[in-house]
Amino acid sequence: MKLNIVDTRDTPTSAARWERGLTMVDGVLLLVDASEGPLPQTRFVLRKALEARLPVILVINKIDRPDARIDEVVDEVYELFLDLDADESQIDFPIVYTNAKAGHASLEPAFDPAHPGDLKPLLDLLVEHVPAPSSTPITAFRPTSRTSMRPPTWGGSPSAECATASSGAARRWPGPGTTARSSASRCQSSM
Fold first, then answer.
1. What is d(CA 146, CA 46) in angstroms, rounded to the nearest whole number?
2. Rounded to the nearest 10 degrees, what angle do helices 40-51 and 70-83 cross at?
3. CA distance 105 to 111
């Protein structure tokens, strides 16, 4: 069995990145700190996951911290689901309690540092609650390569870069001293 995990960062630019990544996943691990509770970005991520009808597994992390308030944080997450108009099937989500640094996951909130355990409960929930990909086999695979495209005002010296799509079209960004036409020529000649 192979699991692919897409990690989203909590940065101001992660919203668009997360939305793109949403098309590549079949479920969501909603990671919430046991002492901080749900943050503003948690609301955004959860809203998008619920709109996409993706199964959610709640992961309460850092359960070993002395200021952990596990029960209150779980209640805050339930309130967040209700605020986002989740239906009954979406509110019935599994919960796993973790101490990621110790490599511990459990279906119970108790953590014993003398017996840290392993991540098997988390992996078991993934297998049980996240469906296998529903894609069909690709008969004529054409890879898509992408590079970062940025305007010259962002610093550095970007050159003409391109990405091939399945249609074979090229995207271009003119670098310093180039025009869109000369960039297109370079882009197409490099493919």
1. 28
2. 50
3. 9
Pair 96, 107: CB distance under 8 Å: yes
Residue 5 — very low, low, confident or very high, per pLDDT cuts 50/70/90? confident
> Is 96 strand, coil or helix?
strand
pLDDT higher than 70, residue 30:
yes
pLDDT of residue 174: 43
- The answer to whether 178 and 160 are in contact (CB under 8 A) is yes
Q: Could you identify the residue written with the tokens 């310093």?
A: 176
Amino acid (one-letter) located at 100: A
Distance CA 121, CA 106 (A): 6
Tens digit of each residue's pLDDT (9 = 90 or more) over 129-153: 998 877 666 555 555 555 555 555 5
Angle at 26 between CA 20 and CA 27, to 5 degrees: 95
Nearest to 54 by CA among 89, 9, 82: 89
Q: Is the pTM of this model over 0.90?
A: no
Closest CA to 55 of 85, 30, 80: 30
Q: Are strands 95-99 and 104-106 parallel, antiparallel or unpaired?
A: antiparallel
Asked if residue 74 lies in contact with residue 107, where contact means CB atoms within 8 angstroms, the answer is no
